[in-house]
Amino acid sequence: MLDIERLQAALASAPAAGLVEALAGELVAQGAATGVRLLLVDYRLTTLLPLDGPGTDRPAATDRQSDGAAWRCFDGQAAVSDRDTVWVPVTARGERFGVLSLTPTAGWDERLLDLGRLLAHELAAARPTTDRYVIGSRSRRLTLAAEMQWEMLPGRACSGPQFALAGQLEPAYAVKGDTFDWAAGTDRLTLSVLDGMGEGVDAASLSLLATSALRNARRAGLGIADQAMMADSALYAQYGGARHVSLLLAEIDLRTGQLSMVDTGSPLLLLSRGDDLIILEPDRLEPIGMFDGSRYAAQAYQLHPGDRLVIVSDGVHLAELAGRRYGDADLRRLVRRSRPMAPLDVVRTLVGDLRVFVSGELDDDAAAVCLDWFGTAGPDVQ
């Protein structure tokens, strides 16, 4: 039987960059497991990368084409046993870091799942103080603009009793001005999808300024209409109307399911409810930063338990090949086909489908966000 308290203490006292080694050492000391390895999912959600110490040769990655135990564990979010090895999901509050593989010395123990959750929480706490796990998640170098965007993200997935939420940027290693942000409080969930005009670092800088202004206003207790006006003022003061950001800013009352939105541009919002797929079209207002003193107002909708929202930037719905746009029919088919999937799997499948549609890399960058609304009686989340 695993002594989880001892494992927790070992991880809590370990240096930020030494979590896996501390975990492996404690498991061996307890006579519980050997061969401990952490595989981190890459930025594109297509590869599981083994984490190894400095100076070692990195083993081959496990890509999406291989139907191995590691991917069954990651996709199904459940422990998988393959011969002598057990794979455990490393996930905290919906954020999937990867999977842990180990060889139990005394047979299967149900508390191995606790082990994966424990490691995930420690990774979340350690990541801001070490580059080891960030570097370990990369299959190649990011552009500077992409580095800026990924560092600003709140994560790639988040969940609570009432909702599950995930987002993805593409091209993951070279994204420019498209980004997203969210924050979950005790009674509110705030979500934004942004598209900063321009290319490269200029576009990333614009989106980061807008995101920071929105966060500053939100943390001051302002409503979403005032948040949009504060961001508009910040961008106009910096650029004088020469640069702007398209924004969909949404807030969900976690007690009632009321959805309030401010829409200033390119993001497209699809609502999947039962067998229906509806495009929500709130009044389109001026992009933030375009004019001095723009005024914004929120529009309200009511979410029902079981609803799914899919929000995509114009890099998704306006992507074109041979005169045909992805958003005309392909996007709707994908949203319907992916209905049984979890939100992270939806955005992963969506950007993969989009790459197939354009036969390679995107000409424009793209952001995709998926939110499932369970209602006030939703599932518990670890």
Automatic annotation (TrEMBL):
Residue ranges occupied by any PPM-type phosphatase domain in the UniProt entry: 160-373
Which Pfam families does this one have?
Answer: SpoIIE
Instruction: Recite the UniProt keywords alphabetically.
Output: Hydrolase
Instruction: Decide whether keyword Isomerase is in the record.
Output: no
For this protein, the record's InterPro entries field holds: Bact_Sigma-Reg (IPR052016), PPM-type-like_dom_sf (IPR036457), PPM-type_phosphatase-like_dom (IPR001932)
The keyword rRNA processing belongs to this UniProt entry's keyword annotation: no
The protein here is known as PP2C family protein-serine/threonine phosphatase
Q: What organism is recorded for this protein?
A: Luedemannella helvata
Q: Lineage of the source organism? A: Bacteria, Bacillati, Actinomycetota, Actinomycetes, Micromonosporales
